[in-house]
Amino acid sequence: MFRLLLLIVALWPQEQQNPLPDRDSFLSEFRKTLKRDETLLSQYTYTQSETEITLDSKGKPKKTEVNVYQVTHGREEWQTYRRHISKNGVPLAEKDIEKQDREEKERVQKELRKRQNQSDDKRLKEKAKEEREEEEITDEVFAMYDVQMVRREEIGGHSTVLMTFKTKPNYKPKTRDGKILQHIAGRVWVTEDDHQLAKIEAEIIDTISIGAGLFAKLNKGSTLTFERRKINDEIWLPVKADVTVNGRLLLLKGLNVREVTEFSDHKKFNVDTILSFGDVIKKPQ
Q1: Fewest CB atoms less than 10 Å from the CB: which of 5, 192, 213, 252?
Q2: Which pLDDT tens digit goes with each residue over 54-82?
């Protein structure tokens, strides 16, 4: 009987696994999604909880601090507002929140005056410079890494392609960021239908020295995990980041921390670029 069962299993038609996508075409489509949609992002607010854990020499927690923020985005990066609302589980006093709102409103007004005094030509040149530098970094990333497709995995109800990445042998970085990124390797999960970053796990595989080690030194073994999810079936937003860093700052201060950032309560709203701080976050649509 047992031999008969084995024969039936062997002869049973096996479901054919679809081949993985063509790597180069898939990466080309993935690259197109890396630029954020600032217009759509500016319609969202969310809660950001940051847990900073100071570790001892054995990696055991010795101090923990938790801060919670409400975050809104404008159409440009300088319009983003992180409103501090609690520390270690205790809500901030109303007067402290009102003080933040006043200071943020003053900052935005100052930035607006600065831009009003700039010529359109200067603003366009600065914008073009930022985009050019961003493009150079993206070019570097896709040129420096050897990317290998591994398999399909489901994350958050989406079919993703798991890929590994590490620096190509003998690659010479052309940018300042590239000189740092060459010491990092890891894994990345990209959705198969819309080519969005769903998750990345990265690790420092060689010590990174910034400013020849005078400003900072990040030791081998420091790690990063970052996850995103699709919200309202229209935009991919962060849900969690987990970073563990071991090293030192300015040759003096030892650095051995783990920071876990969780993003939740994503809500969509519609406001003008000039935000009415406080009301926006309390009254999302």
Answers
A1: 252
A2: 988 778 889 999 999 999 987 778 889 99
